[in-house]
Automatic annotation (TrEMBL):
GO MF entry, a single one: chromatin binding
Subcellular location: Nucleus
Keywords per UniProt: Nucleus
Composition bias type Acidic residues, residue spans: 598-607
Keyword Nucleus: yes
Biological process annotations from GO: DNA-templated DNA replication
Domain of life: Eukaryota
Residue ranges of coiled coil: none
Name assigned to this protein: Mini-chromosome maintenance complex-binding protein
Length: 607
């Protein structure tokens, strides 16, 4: 790609499209291929400015941009539009044709008006379809992931300064209407941005919560003026919308949201969303040494508890592999750490969340405080959440309202039960807890819609922090047993180990080879289970066996193995025996404390 053509595509993509349509006679599919061929590598793609909350004020209408985002709402109707419009000079009567592909409005030009199409000569080929979806920046992205976009943005600034002079489209973007904040999953995320994304041609069938990267033409919309009575019958204002009929997506409130007319796109995998994923080859790493080093650092954040550190590491490489015929998520491994310090060290939970955010690309903490549950959040997305006393907002059709758990697969959700307090849940709070419980138990996110609720499969990592056993029935529960005080200086994550761990957590979660259990190991597992049952261990039921098998798979995965062997099975067996022993000890201790309180505190008990 020559530098001149590169500049045209980046700064004046609509001019390039006009030429490709009228001079080269290319179709929309051909144009998409042409643009993709200009950016064949990640390095070339990085030349296209990313739409972010910081770059948006500087990006004018008509620029080529890329947007890494999540599909928040796909309920809008397809829109029909005329491929071509005719402009007429009001002085000379001269006419010329302009393409309306990748735009919703025509720019205002003195002395020119758009001519209303003559419907008497209408042909099906004159009309195309575009498919709008509402997208938001990928929610809960952590700081180290966003830093990459910031670096690229600074690198492009010199190009923008030197080459944007004279380029049309100096219109500043309008601030998003505050009422549309209901479409942001995380309401207090200062880094979020939204766009109405429109694809052309066949419908790509984007699903809710899909992570996508789109490359297209940016457009900022202003509300078109109402035509006056003396407007000629055969002309329409240049700023008029070019599709028909208008629907929810074209309400005035949506004109405050930038639009991206997609030239090409791709659906992103969990690995695509992790910039560290390509930075390591598992074959080049001594995984045993890496495991020891990471567990040693994690111990410091868990009060010196080595078993909790190992379970946390296994939890961080878990993911749903598939669903059984009864829809059970296979590979789902939520973890409940109990006995979390609160009174003596209120910094424990935020410090642990900060650690996770330094290792993972997306982390979101859900504090279960009364205020949050009763007033501030909606856990599940809904066609319309109650707008309180705002009757005007309640009448607006803004499509799907986001829920706090409307996130991209691979996001880590930290449910903070330590924020619980005495009080009463209202109807909203009860609903939030119910939907949170459904998501945690089934790995399905409820969507509340007028004609009946629906659910969507999700793959979130779920870590529950609580003082006692959590209210949601997590199968793998581990009481924390600190050996150091919370104020002890936490061990730093060495920079090289940190970078390596980010990459390995991503790679180990998505192994290239399927996991298998050889026939010999099946026999060993069956013999072990039978021996436990013969010994009268009633706690070794099918659920306990299922958890042990999952731990064994994660132990093997953490060692870079795709086949279960005796060493990994024995390691998993020891871990599970130790965990269940600790659970019994905690249960006995709690019972003894309750009995002692009943005997020695009769005055309080009799009140």
């Amino acid at each position: 790609m020559t530098s001149g053509h590169e500049t045209d595509i980046l700064l004046r993509p609509l001019e390039v499209v006009q030429k490709l349509i009228f001079e080269d006679n290319l179709s929309i599919a051909d144009i998409s291929t042409h643009f993709q061929n200009q950016f064949p590598t990640p390095a070339a793609l990085s030349l296209i400015p990313a739409l972010t909350h910081t770059s948006l004020p500087r990006l004018p209408t008509g620029r080529l941009v890329r947007f890494r985002c999540m599909v928040q709402d796909n309920s809008f109707n397809a829109q029909e539009y005329f491929h071509t419009m005719t402009l007429r000079n009001t002085t000379t009567g001269a006419e010329h044709h302009v393409s309306t592909v990748y735009r919703d409005t025509l720019p205002e030009m003195d002395g020119w008006v758009a001519v209303e199409p003559d419907m008497r000569h209408f042909r099906a080929g004159m009309v195309g379809e575009k498919h709008p979806v509402y997208c938001v920046a990928v929610p809960a992205e952590t700081e180290w992931v966003r830093e990459g976009e910031v670096v690229e943005e600074m690198r492009r600034m010199s190009l923008e300064r030197s080459e944007t002079r004279g380029v049309g489209g100096d219109d500043a973007p309008v601030a998003i209407d505050p009422r549309l904040h209901v479409k942001f999953p995380i309401k207090d995320d200062a880094n979020t941005v939204a766009a109405l994304v429109k694809t052309y041609g066949s419908d790509p069938q984007f699903r809710l919560n899909d992570a996508i990267e789109v490359v297209g033409v940016l457009e900022h919309i202003t509300v078109p003026p109402t035509p006056s009575d003396d407007t000629p019958d055969m002309t329409i204002p240049m700023s008029a919308q070019l599709e028909f009929p208008p629907d929810t997506a074209e309400q005035a409130i949506f004109t405050t949201v930038p639009r991206i007319h997609v030239v090409f796109h791709r659906v992103l995998s969990q690995l695509d969303l992790n910039p560290a994923a390509a930075n390591v080859d598992v074959k080049d790493v001594d995984l045993e040494m890496w495991r020891e080093e990471v567990i040693e650092v994690l111990k410091g954040y868990l009060g010196g508890d080595a078993m909790a550190a190992e379970y946390l590491l296994l939890h961080l490489i878990s993911k749903i592999d598939h669903r059984a015929p009864d829809d059970t998520p296979i590979g789902y491994f939520p973890l409940n750490l109990t006995n979390i310090p609160t009174d003596a060290d209120a910094s424990f939970t935020p410090t642990l969340v900060t650690l996770l955010a330094s290792l993972l690309p997306r982390v979101h903490r859900v504090p279960l405080s009364l205020t949050a549950l009763n007033e501030h959040t909606w856990i599940a997305p809904a066609q319309k959440h109650a707008a309180g006393n705002d009757e005007a907002a309640d009448k607006l059709d803004m499509g799907l309202h986001a829920g706090e758990l409307q996130l991209v697969d691979g996001t880590w959700v930290v449910v903070d039960e330590t924020a619980l307090e005495d009080g009463t849940l209202n109807e909203r709070g009860i609903s939030n807890l119910s939907h949170l419980g459904t998501t945690l138990r089934t790995a399905k996110l409820p969507y509340l819609i007028p004609y009946g609720d629906m659910t969507r499969d999700v793959d979130y990592g779920v870590l529950v922090l609580s003082q006692g056993k959590c209210m949601f029935g997590v199968d793998c529960t581990l009481p924390l047993r600190p050996t150091t005080h919370g104020s002890t200086r936490l061990p730093p994550f060495p920079a090289q180990l940190l970078a390596q761990t980010r990459a390995l957590l991503a790679t180990l979660r998505s192994p290239p080879t399927s996991y298998t259990i050889p026939p010999a190991m099946v026999d060993t597992i069956s013999s072990d289970y039978a021996a436990h049952r013969r010994a009268g261990e009633t706690t070794m039921d099918m659920q306990a066996l299922s958890t042990r098998l999952e731990v064994a798979k994660l132990v093997a995965r953490s060692c870079g193995k795709h086949t279960l062997d005796t060493a990994c099975w024995e390691r998993a067996r020891r871990l599970e025996v130790q965990r269940r022993t600790r659970l019994r000890e905690v249960a006995v201790g709690s019972k003894g404390k309750r009995d002692g309180d009943a005997d020695g505190d009769g005055e309080v008990a009799g009140r």
